[in-house]
Amino acid sequence: MPATRGLRNAPARRSSEGMHRHDRPALPSEPFAQPPNALCIGSMPEPLPSPDINEYGAEREGLRQRLDRRLFLQLLVVEAVGNRAARDLRQSLAAGLEQRGATAVIYEDLNHPAGLGLLALGEDPGKLADLTRPLFAQHAGALRLRPEFTMLGRTYATGFETDLEHWLLHRPRETVFDERWPWAIWYPLRRSGTFERLSAPERGEVLREHGRIGRAYGDADLAHDIRLACHGLDANDNEFIIGLVGRELHALSRIVEVMRHTRQTAEFVAHMGPFFVGRVVWRSPGR
């Protein structure tokens, strides 16, 4: 579906009028039986909301962009065990990924001499499992998963993207596969509920402060971000995953430090981490 296609008319809904006891049999505890498509607030039935799982961007050619596609990214972190050296494991994993035509990156874990990070990308999350499960089974005696570093997220839109399809599907690929940027820091985070209770203008100002710093580092080619939503996808109830990539590791560390002084991080981030720090040793854009 093109990103610029207009919104379709919502399907007609059934009447939200309630059904009294004499209309059908009711359980003894039912003071007022409701049709299955209604919510009851007090004694008044109210229609259910219409679910919308689309992502929306800015208007283009007079129509708001809409797209029901997104990219899933999963980071799995492992350590080599037994007599298998990390370098041998890396080469074996890379060969298996390439044979399967995977869109993936392998990192050396800077904080673990025998550690590796496998980042896989795809629109179909099922294919990520189809890719990694047989590969891990093949190397069952050579590696151990470190589940505390597992991250799974999906691309999302803020509503202001001028090219929605590029933002959701192409920009993350271009960022992780850019040969100029070998360093990466990946981490999850969760904001406090207090943030959601701010007024819309105040939330916007908090996010703009954060965004201005990110754009400044990106324009200077110091740090480039990948922002993912992970609501319901994270074992620890995190809400977002951030990937920072760039030429030099110290610049990625500095932007994390600078962001700590923003209102969003200082007041409204309830939890961050753990942090995975990696250097790219293999990339494949897939086929």
How would you characterize the overall build of this protein?
The chain has helices spanning 86-99, 125-138, 164-176, 193-196, 200-219, 249-259, 263-268; strands spanning 38-41, 44-47, 55-60, 63-67, 72-80, 103-109, 115-122, 143-145, 151-155, 183-191, 224-229, 240-246, 269-272, 276-285. The longest helix is centred in the last third of the chain and has 20 residues, at 200-219. It is an alpha+beta fold. The chain contains seven helices and 14 strands. The radius of gyration is 23 Å and the shape is globular.
Detail the topology: elements first, then pairings.
Layout lengths: L37 E4 L2 E4 L7 E6 L2 E5 L4 E9 L5 H14 L3 E7 L5 E8 L2 H14 L4 E3 L5 E5 L8 H13 L6 E9 L1 H4 L3 H20 L4 E6 L10 E7 L2 H11 L3 H6 E4 L3 E10 L2
Antiparallel strand pairs: 1-2, 3-4, 5-7, 5-8, 5-9, 6-7, 6-14, 9-11, 10-12, 10-13, 10-14, 11-12
In total, how many domains does the architecture comprise? 2
Text of the CATH class of the largest domain? Alpha Beta
CATH architecture of the largest domain: 2-Layer Sandwich
**What's the β-strand tally?**
14
